[in-house]
TrEMBL record:
Transcription factor that specifically regulates the neosartoricin B biosynthesis gene cluster. One of its GO terms (molecular function) is DNA binding. The keyword NADP does not apply. This is C6 finger domain transcription factor nscR. The keyword Transcription regulation applies.
Amino acid sequence: MSMPHPTPTSPPAARLHSCQLCQQRKVKCDRQQPCSGCAKAGTDCVYRAPAPPRRRKRRSPEEILRARLRRYEAILKNLGVNVDANEGTGPGEKDDGPVSSHDAAQAPKDTSKTRPEDVACLGSKLGRLIVVDGKPRFLENALWVSLGDELHTSHDLEDSSTQGGEDDADEIEALMPEQLDRFSPDESRLLFGSAINRPSLLYLHPEPVKIFTLWQKFLENVDPLTKIFHTPTVQQQVLKVSGSLGNMPKPFEALMFAIYLCAVVSLSDEESRGLLGEPRKVVQQRYRLGTEQALINAEFIKSSDATVLQAFALYLLAMRPHMEAQTLWILSGVALRIAQRIGLHHDGASLQLSVFETEMRRRLWWQIVVLDGFSAELSGVGILGGVHNPPIPLPLNVNDIDLDPNMTGVPVEHNGITEMSFCLLRYTIGRFLRDSRTKHTFDGPWQHLTNPMISIPEKIQELEDLDKLIEQKFLQYCDISIPFHFIVSMVGRCGISMMKHRVYMLGCPRKPGGRSFDREESDTLFASSIKILEYDNLAKSMPNVRRYYWHVEAHFQWHAFIFLLYELRNRTSGEEVDKAWFQIEKVYENRSRFLTDVKNKLIVAAGNLVLKAWEQKVSGLHVPGVEMRVPQFIETLRARRSGILSTKQKLRDNICHQPNTNESPLVSDSSALIDGNNSAPLFLFASSVSNSGMGVESSTEMQDPSSVLDGLYAPSQDFDSPNWMEWEALFRHSGIRGDREGDI
């Protein structure tokens, strides 16, 4: 059988694609049939064209717009804006009203993980505001800004890490419950320590009836002078959580305890016993510990929740009279840093936040800034300039009723006194001091006023302009028969007078061998000092202003008081002199602590100066056969110092009769040097004021108490020339303490 001869064919055309095997092996294919690779491997050589690439479907402009709207709605929802408010609530959904990021932590949170679409990043030229679960964090560093979109991942990891950490904590607590508190890794305890052994604060909350009593006292006494939050919104939350204290979110629990503390601080001991059934000192200590533990529980050092910062700010305002100046300055700096982390140092309008949110941020920021400036002055340090750039606008002069979380337009400011007027007046003065700061001095917020490079007339003119602004915006509308109006008027007028004092006392170079200011300036300051003390005494004597005593006591005008005492060593008669002594007597009547406190160097030094001024008055008006009435406070001051002298003489007698043996020390401890009845501190006998430059050396020779801290006086016998720089050092060294009985 003959084989058919193959029909001659043309060679196959070169293929455009590699065979499947070469594609899988990622080797070069010679595109033959079969290819050399497949022939060598002994496998079928199959050529198959790849599927054509899918064309990306281009979205229509309408789809792009809808996607953007969905993104913007997600951002607004995370900021607490109810985007469905105008459309009604969907079926089955409960509308609890909008919650701002300030109040977002006050209601129970959804425990589900945050997804990328729930993270809103609001851009600005200076950084990014990252909002997660309603808690904002502002990022300015380029590294962190570039990672802003990835923060949701770290947030998820934090949640899982925290959950595991809680399990570990349970095991540790079972093993060593007593040491658990001591070894907690929470950095908050570096500031407050271990406030209490039990982190649960349920047992420290007052009864529901007392909760509303304290809330009402807070609204009457504290809120008008602080205005840190929107009271209608917070009141809704108070009503909501008062029936279920065990389920209260930790941030809002911290705010509640801060409210308790502020309310108690504003009460007298009699009011506390009547309303709460306990002495104020006991209740104040309880809520102080409760606030500190609540802040620790809320991890305030790491938190970006504005509610926690509100609680911390209220805590500092309440404890301001009871803290050392340096401690207050450090803690106010912590509050400022937390505010920066939240982004309060950038205005909400530039971050495209809602009108309501922007206003709440401004209120909180300015309260912290003023507190930091106050503490910086007491501590004798400068203030940080970077946090004020760019400057944040002042809050609006409106009432809380003018604000609503749903509002879209900026409310119209009132011409007159509103709930914000007191705070706004203080912020106006604070802004003036901030904007006029110079680089020539380092005197905290008062740099411009104390700078000798600027003439006194120029500084006085600036203060006159500020006075006109305050008068035009606030004081002309004040009816001092209304307690709140009175406190606004008092702060406004005293503030300007106090700043003028600073200009004259510290803002001009001291003339060698002579007075720092001429007679006309001295007369002006003398009259204004009397007026300042008149306002202070009037506030302390008006029953309807009693609710604001807590603020008045924290801001006693020491400069005016000391200036009067120095002037009274030269002025011994006249109508103005009688007015001055009357006001000084009222000061001691209203502030009993000035008579009893022998531990505060500033109070002791001022008392010594009072006695010396009185001696000058008596010697200048001595009339044979006529006895001058001695005020009760003068007799008390003399008696206190006589008691100290008597104690000192007893100590000297004991030392003289002490046997000289080596068997026991002369004095076993420092407490043996103090008589139990008089409790005179050692500094009255061997005093050394650190870092004050007063030249008072420590010595075993006991000094006469009437001359303690005499280095504060001018080196010469010219009583006209107080050394204000040394008094400034003493102000800062002594700090400001509460003046009422039972203060802690």
